[in-house]
Amino acid sequence: MQIITLGNELLKKKADKIEKIDTETINLAKQMLEILVRDNGVGLAGPQIGVMKRIFVIHIQDDIERVFINPSILETSQKTCKFEEGCLSIPGIYATVVRSESIKIQAWNEKGRPFTLEVSGLLARVILHEYDHLEGIVFLDRIEEDKRKKLITKFKKTTRKGSSSK
User: Fold this and answer.
1) Model-level pTM greater than 0.85?
2) Which of 34, 85, 130, 144 is catalytic?
3) Residues 40, 27: contact at Cβ < 8 Å?
4) Is-contact 30 38, C-beta < 8 A?
5) Whether the predicted pLDDT of 158 surpasses 90
């Protein structure tokens, strides 16, 4: 499985609910965690690998690996914070994004067990970033239009240079 990049229409589509957490779902979660580690990311959503299912995985440094299936954001704080974000689907591009500082999320894990988390800081940010992917939103959609256009142009130029040197 390869990570798809900006320009692929799948990144703009809403992912479908997973109807049954079975062996296929468990294997998908394992593969996604392997890709996440391989590509040095902190989060990866199904649409980023062309799988239009509501699943994402997260692994932030010393934190445990987490699997979120059919997640729902229950609450977001009014207090926000700015932080520079990047994305495995938009390599080499970074921008400051404003997001809620803390959230409450409900989802199911790879064992089919529901859980609810109240988190803040980096973990909340990564969850919101990955949740956006399930909704067809990339982090560049969350910044000012003029800056977004410049970064997309930069990404396209970098991508063209990278593909012409192969």
Assistant:
1) yes
2) 130
3) no
4) no
5) no
Per the annotation, the verdict on 130 as an active-site residue is: yes
Q: Does residue 8 contact residue 159 with C-beta atoms inside 8 Å?
A: no
Are 70 and 107 spatial neighbours (Cβ–Cβ below 8 Å)? yes
> What's the burial of 138, exposed, middle or buried (CB within 10 Å: 0-12/13-18/19+)?
buried
pLDDT digit string (tens) for 2-44? 999 999 999 999 999 999 999 999 999 999 999 999 999 999 9
DSSP letter, residue 18: P
Q: What long-range pairs does 107-115 form, CB within 8 A, spacing at least 24?
A: 107/68, 107/69, 107/70, 107/71, 107/72, 108/21, 108/68, 108/69, 108/70, 109/66, 109/67, 109/68, 109/69, 110/21, 110/25, 110/26, 110/29, 110/30, 110/67, 110/69, 111/21, 112/21
Is 78 in contact with 98 (CB distance < 8 Å)? no
Q: Cα separation of 34 and 38, whole Å?
A: 6
Angle formed at CA 74 by CA 69 and CA 75, multiple of 5 degrees: 135
The CATH homologous superfamily of the domain defined by 9-164: Peptide deformylase (3.90.45.10)
Identity of the amino acid at 60: I
Flag whether pLDDT at 166 surpasses 60: no
Q: Which two tokens stand for residue 132?
A: 């956006």
